[in-house]
What does this fold into?
Amino acid sequence: MTPAPIAPPAELSLEEYRFLRQLGRVADDLLEESLRERETLAQCFRRCFPVLLSHTGARAIALTTRDEELVEQTWSEGDWGGVFPGSLLTGAAGVRAHEGHTLVIQTLDVAGSPVGTLGLLFAGAPGDAEARARQLRTLDTLAEELDTVLMLVHTASEKHQVILQCNEHLANPVFEAGMDQAVRTLAQRVRLPGFLLLYRDAVQPHVLHYRTYRHGQLEYESGEQPSAPLETLLHQHGTRLLHGDAGVLKRLFDGRTTEAVLISAGARSEPLGKIVVWNNEGFSAYAMDLIRVLASTLSQRLLDYNRERIHLSQFFSTEAINALLEDPDYARHLRAQEQEVGILFADINGFTRICEQGFDSPRSIARFVDEWSARAVDCIWAHGGVFDKMVGDCVIGLFGPPFFQTDRVRRAEAAVRAACDIQAFTAELGAREEVSALCQRVGLPGLGVAVGVNLATANCGLFGPNRNYTAFSSGMNQAARLQSLAGFRETLVMQSVHEALKTSQEPFVRKLQVGPLTETPVKNVAQPLRHHRLSL
It folds into this structure.
């Protein structure tokens, strides 16, 4: 049946005016009490509906709206004659007959945004135009009280859903991918013409990275898709861009309303980064609230991301870390696995004598070792190796991990090239005036290093309570023993390395001079070490 047309507003009688005013007060009091008690929608309607039925004289009441999980639900009270009221509320707004009774329906909305549908079922067939108008005014009075409350619930629920989605995205092991998804989700709910994330590098805090978005889509990023204006600002101001207001950045986004949210690791610590958003028309309180929550979540994610990078930076080069963290399942590369790897042990010649006779304090020893070992590790990383650990002044490197994409020949080549580089820079370091004088003082011909290189099967991965990347095998022990046999500025390689290098086509490797095979018995090793002396 077609709903009866809504009658034009008629002049209210004093009696009806008092009734509607009292009804509004009753509904308002019920809703306020429910809000004070922080009740769910279901609890709220259980509280309100019986009282409203009593005051309106209606047979039944029903409301269809979304619950706190943003799932559409219908709540009802009274006698609907065994019919599900939700299906009745899908009809057009107005007054119509239903099973010999009168059904009055009205859409609830705030500022044009629908938040639900409210219906009252009155006993008896629809009356005349004036009776229908009174019923509509009764329903409208209730609607005015309910729609604002429902809008608050819906807004809070939507905000909560957005926050959960952003948190889920930011949990992505690939930080950049999670960030892109979070901004895209945010832009689907609020107008977000411009968004900038500026953040420190975890390993090199003086270096800043950035990602900029246009309407939720990635526009520029440091590295692969650089922004020329941003690159200029970074060059001019560096990490100062993270401090104070966004004045400098505002000039970059000229003519736009800009808000900056600092992402800070703590009240007294250096900021991790900054969010800047811009929009010609500004942002609503709803939008800014979401942006602030995203900033808070992002702060924690950046802290976690930085911890990951700092932990991995103990073993891997920046390139390897980037490649690892671009893989959502990068942990699989770090799990223990048995592979043939290149193994390098490098130890400073005469280090004990240098420490006892050459330095005036432990601090001086530490500074010297720190400089030498940092450059030795750089040599290992430059050839795709992994820094295993440092034992005293001995640096240990592995070649092959963490991806094991190269064959045994490439791994042997990388280990040998790193050994040659370590020999070369150590000799250069020994030529410095203060180091040369130190060597003369302790009776050494110069600064040298003894290196042992092996190619052997080992179990590689993260081990121990500190989750250090290392390897275990008899081949590691052989490399250590081989290094101890090496003399001044001497590199010894196991026979397995020599056999692998025979097939190498690398010009550098083919220029190497290999000494005759030597067998050397060593303590606690069943078979003599079979090795060659290597030189340029």
User: Anything to note?
Assistant: Residues 1-8 have pLDDT under 50 and may be disordered.
